[in-house]
Amino acid sequence: MKQRTIGPFTVSAIGLGCMNLSHAYGTPPPPEQAGRVLLAALDAGVTLFDTAALYGFGANESILGRVLKPHRNKFTLASKGGMAGVQFDGGVKRVIDGRPEAIRRNCEDSLQRLQTDVIDLYYLHRWDKKVPVEDSVGAMSDLVRAGKVRALGLSEVSAATIRKAQAVHPISAVQTEYSLWTRNPEIAVLDACREIGAAFVPFSPVARGFLCDAVHDVSAFDAKDIRRSMPRFTPENYAANLKLLPAYKALAQEAGCTPAQLALAWLLHKAPHIVPIPGTTSVAHLEEDLGAQAVQLAPDLLARLEALVNQDSVSGHRYSAQSRTEVDTEEFTA
Ligand SMILES: NC(=O)c1ccc[n+]([C@@H]2O[C@H](COP(=O)([O-])OP(=O)(O)OC[C@H]3O[C@@H](n4cnc5c(N)ncnc54)[C@H](OP(=O)(O)O)[C@@H]3O)[C@@H](O)[C@H]2O)c1
Q1: How far is residue 221 CA from its own chain's centroid?
Q2: What is the pLDDT of residue 57?
Q3: What is the pLDDT of residues 226-239, one digit of tens each?
Q4: What distance in angstroms lies between residue 9's CA and the mean position of ligand 1's atoms?
Q5: pLDDT tens digits along 62-94
Q6: Residue 26 near residue 220, CB atoms below 8 Å
Q7: d(Cα 211, Cα 206) in Å, to the nearest integer?
Q8: 238 within some domain
Q9: How far apart are the first and last CA of the chain?
Q10: Containing domain of residue 76, as a range?
Q11: Does ligand 1 have an atom closer than 6 angstroms to the CB of 18?
């Protein structure tokens, strides 16, 4: 695998997003399959694994802890706090809580589930707008001093918030949705990361399956599939978005790669500080995705690709109205 840099870490140019091994896109795979995907990634040279306290309300970190503990010195472990499952009325609900005491508790719980003494890269999953970001990042910097985490990151924040956080503690990475169909980081965040020397980690880099030509019938989504609440995947918007795919697939063919690889190769070509983290439940898809690192895209093809799939050609917002209130990123209107 080619290598890129995130703060003090040298990592594979493509990491593994582990969320969908425990939740998000329908029924998660059985634990044995999740384990096979993690170990196949490690065998293929992936050295960045991305999880969060939120994913499966802790189940995702537990899987990583169980499967990857014997290999802990071979990879950079990234997790996130400040948004997690909280018990209520016999159930569990997702809560954004960036108070220092919540961050400290999230981190302790994550360390236990991950079966490790230290998390390499610890992100604030969402900026809790009720808490100054300086306070949340201040608590995270205490975790660095205590040796519980090594470096800090932020997720779904604006350039202004990145700079406020950077004034408290060096920020090694910013993780936000970025792909051909979600270009918001191009407004200001990619530049802010370059300016402060942080890596940029695009999440949902293959557009939650859309850019893999893997989603044809949105009415077949499982009841728990999070794409059900995303405006781009409503039947009407998705039908419009599907019309982009024939020309997109033709460009992939011209580039000599698959649609998923084209989406990832485009990100790798955008800047050297970008490290995408596609998610998959399939070893075959993992191998295909990692193949993107070898794909070369000519400037002319890149230009045609960007003209084809962008914020103006896509129908529907990336997030629901509720989720939009929870992020702090500069957004193109859709
Ligand atoms: N910070 C945040 O707020 C945040 C939010 C969302 C995600 N994330 C992180 O980013 C990671 C990736 O994002 P994501 O999972 O939302 O989106 P993604 O990587 O864009 O898309 C994942 C979807 O694409 C499919 N897929 C991947 N490669 C494929 C291939 N080669 N062929 C066909 N289908 C393919 C997967 O299905 P299969 O399982 O069938 O391969 C899955 O349904 C997550 O795992 C998580 O770690 C962070």
Answers
A1: 21
A2: 96
A3: 999 999 999 999 99
A4: 23
A5: 999 999 999 999 999 999 999 999 998 889 999
A6: no
A7: 5
A8: no
A9: 36
A10: 3-208+271-295
A11: yes
